[in-house]
Amino acid sequence: MSNVENTGTETVTNEYGADQIQILEGLEAVRKRPGMYIGTTSLRGLHHLVYEIVDNSVDEALAGYCDTIKVYINPGNSITVVDNGRGIPVGINHKAGLPAVEVVFTVLHAGGKFGGGGYKVSGGLHGVGASVVNALSTWLEVEISKDGQVYNQRYERGKVCYPLKVVGTCPKDVTGTKVTFQPDPEIFEETIYDFDTLKKRLREMAFLTKGLRIELYDIREDDKKKEEVFHYEGGIKEYVQYLNSSETPLYEDIMYFEGNKNDVYVEVSVQHNDGYNDKVYGFVNNINTPEGGTHIEGFKRAITKVFNDYARTNKIIKDTDPNLSGDDIREGLTAIVSVKIGNPQFEGQTKQKLGNSEARGAVESLLTEKLTIYLEQNPTIAKTICDKSVLAQRARDAARKARDLTRRKTALEGSSLPGKLADCSDKTPENCEIYIVEGDSAGGSAKSARSRATQAILPLRGKILNVEKARIDKIYANAEIKAMITAFGTGIHEDFDISKLRYHKIIIMTDADVDGAHIATLMLTFLYRFMPELIKQGHVYLAQPPLYKLEKNKKTWYAYSDEELASIINEVGRDQNNKIQRYKGLGEMDAEQLWETTMDPERRVLLRVCMDEDNESEVNLTFTTLMGDKVEPRREFIQANAKFVSNLDI
Q1: What are the residues facing 456 on neighbouring strands?
Q2: Are residues 163 and 24 part of one domain?
Q3: Cα–Cα distance measured from residue 541 to residue 525, given in angstroms and rounded to the nearest whole number
Q4: Which of 160-169, 404-413, 468-477, 595-604 has the lowest mean pLDDT?
Q5: Which domain CATH number covers 631?
Q6: Fewest CB atoms less than 10 Å from the CB: which of 122, 159, 306, 468?
Q7: Range 455-478 average pLDDT
Q8: Residue 308 included in any domain
């Protein structure tokens, strides 16, 4: 390998020695307050440990020194990450008087990412990755191949077990780092890794690093070994193609623009589909920024200006007509905006929003220049997008008028609550919950069963509108959706204000059959598309009505799954006195049964709906797959996940 390579962002030297590992502070607080460093000690935090170690290997790839990363889920749920990068430095760091690798794994905020020249761009910006993973593991071993020798060191709960030592030799041209760690059950609520969760995040990393090969192996059980390989020479262009796989593209081409502006390397890929939701994802040094930031602002400014200029120049919109809004132009848009920047400034520890002003200018300048040329060279595509945007503008105007009319009627009537809502008497949102119930029959039972002080009931008639296939004007015109919007009190889209939420628990209660599951999915699609903060902040739940009632000798048991029913039968015995009822719907239960099985806070089972913000593009794709127009992706999804619905009456 040559000593100098160009990454597309800035020339990187091969100087990566012990003195480039800089120390900022100690490691003491990590085990006491793990949430400060990995966000949570739940399953999300457990998987975050893997991402931190893989991020370090990806940084080597961004620098041009690594092209393959292998991740193993081992028996016992330890993790091994192997890369063929330069290998962590093993020489003595003169500031610490310790081998550099020991500093990396035992000192917080130590690494080659703080101006020491090790990396020009880096995803693991805060430098806490290796040391935090070490601190939160029962044990961790690192093995480094470098300069013809193999080095090894082991740690237990962050403490060094023995000095760095040479354990073997290797060819001089073989380099790399191998890290194996066992998450600490004293820290984490669960320590069992989920293959699919890791698969989704590693796929995203591979898309974002053009040409990088990431291999994932699950070797926990001999008869259930799994493996996935991710390798995309097209990078984010292939990412857009993947995200649009369940959509019908508006045109065949996938736009892709790249270049350097003011020391910021910018990549943008876009394609419209015939749907109505826009999906714009931003990344900085391969880090997802779900709250956007300056790079997304620059993208939105550029795309809005360029399309308005094109539409006016080509008389698609008249001189007297208003400009197309950004929302109009982005209707049905899937886009990836990826920037590489030397010193990214994120808002908050969690790196959710980029703050660098130079990123805004770089993205806006590059995209304005290159998109303008593209539209001139592809007039058919340009006109197709503009025509769709004009239709979106008309629908948005109709929706605004409907919304304004509703507001005026509300002001005149003095009450905004829908007539079929049975509200609760307590007006403190923290104490209140609303059941969204399928059908008038179940709604009647729920109204009789409820605690009137804190439980509101909103019955919906049939299946609500599939918002995945509807424009905003149709959504505002739908009676069932309007009833939910009004009852919740928050408004939707630009009107959304979570401080106005009237109930801190929104509970979707549907029949335990396929139709019930479909209705619940329709409701979740609406909430995800138009009120995602309700899900993100933990206000949305699924009620779990029982599947079976078993009666014997004047005693009653309820079972919520086939397995639970079998367990109860084994306990009470199999004989002719057993009376088993399979509930087909909520309407089959009287008020007393509904209360004691599904609504009593002391005995009920609720499932909180959570969203994996680390993999938001995958969440988006799931809704598109389930609720979009294409049948084949939906069939494949159902077949792949059939084990999750094995108890439904299908």
Answers
A1: 434
A2: yes
A3: 14
A4: 404-413
A5: 3.40.50.670
A6: 159
A7: 89
A8: yes
Catalytic residue among 438, 468, 480, 618: 438
Residues in the chain: 650
Which of 274, 291, 513, 612 is catalytic? The answer is: 513
Among 311, 332, 464, residue whose Cα is nearest residue 390 = 311
444 and 339 share one domain:
no
Q: Which runs of consecutive H residues, i.e. helices, occur in 531-590?
A: 532-536, 562-572
| Cα atoms in the 13 Å half-sphere on the side-chain side of 617 | 26
**Partners of residue 369 on adjacent β-strands:** none
| The one-letter amino acid at 537 | Q
109 is a domain residue: yes
261 beta partners: 264
71-89 residue pLDDT tens = 999 999 999 999 999 999 9
Has residue 298 got a pLDDT over 60? yes
Phi, psi (5° rounding) for residue 630? -75, 130
Tokens of 318: 């008249």
- Of these ranges, 15-19, 27-31, 566-570, 610-614, the one predicted with the greatest mean pLDDT is 566-570
Return the structure tokens found at 536: 């993100």
Q: Out of 263, 274, 327, 515, which one is annotated catalytic?
A: 515
In the residue annotation, 513 being an active-site residue is answered as yes
Is 438 annotated in the active site? yes
Q: Looking at residue 609, what is its pLDDT?
A: 95
Q: In this structure, are 8 and 140 located in the same domain?
A: yes
In the chain, the N- to C-terminal Cα span, in Å, equals 59
- Domain containing 313 — which CATH number? 3.30.230.10
Which listed residue (473, 511, 614, 618) is catalytic? 511
Does residue 422 sit within a domain? no
- Under a CB-based contact definition with an 8 Å cutoff, are residues 648 and 514 in contact? yes
User: Given the DSSP bridges, would you call strands 98-99 and 4-6 parallel, antiparallel or unpaired?
Assistant: unpaired
Q: β-strands 548-552, 79-83: how paired?
A: unpaired
Task: State the pLDDT at residue 6.
Answer: 43
Q: Which domain holds residue 508?
A: 429-545+591-645
On whether both 35 and 143 belong to a single domain, the answer is yes
Task: Determine, yes or no, domain membership for 650.
Answer: no
Residues in contact with 148: Cβ distance below 8 Å, sequence separation at least 6, in sequence order: 169, 170, 171, 172
